[in-house]
Amino acid sequence: MTYFSNEVRLVKATDEELPALVRAVQEAFAPAVYETFGQRDYGPIPSDEEVWASFHAPGAVVYHIFHGQEATGGVVLRIDEVSGHNILELFFLSPNYHGRGLGLAAWRAVEALYPQTKVWETVTPYFEKRNIHFYVNKCGFHVVEFFNAHHVAPDLSVPVCRDGSPMPGMDEFFRFRKVMC
Questions:
Q1: Which of 18, 38, 63, 168 is the most exposed place for a label (fewest CB within 10 A)?
Q2: Whole-prediction pTM value?
Q3: What superfamily would CATH give domain 2-179?
Q4: First-to-last CA distance in the chain?
C-alpha cells in the first residue's frame, strides 16, 4: 500500500527491508541521547530487540517515508481496525531532513491513510523536546500522562546499555493522545 501527498509518500516496507529500517531508526534516535547524556557506548538506541518487537507487534504496519525518490525516514503503527484506537510505535526522519516540514507532511499522510482512527497514542522520553514540540504543537496531540519514579508505566522495562546500566532518560516519558473528530 502506498499513500502519496504533494510532499511525501508512505510505502509499506517489505520483510527484506526491515533490517535496513532497524539501522535507520537507530541512526535517527541516537543523536538526542548523545546530545543530552553525552557520548558513550550505549549500544544501539533503541536496541535491535525493541525495534523488532515494534515491527512484529499485533497489528503492526511498517512504512518508509519518501520525499521524491529519497527514503527520509519511516513509521511503525499498530492498527486496531475494530476499536479504531491506534498506536504510533515509531516515527522517525533522518536528521538530514529535520526542519523541512516533512515530518508533519508524513504525519498528515498517516492520518489520511487511516481515516477510521478514533484515537492515536504515542510516547516519547521526557528529554526529547523536539518530539514533544512536534506532537503537541504541530500534530495536535495532548500530553495525557507523565511516567516517572512516582507514576511508573505498567509495562515499563527500562532498556539497558551494553555495560548493563539503565539507558539514561528512558525511565521518564510522556504519553500523548490525539482524539480524532
A1: 38
A2: 0.89
A3: Gcn5-related N-acetyltransferase (GNAT) (3.40.630.30)
A4: 25
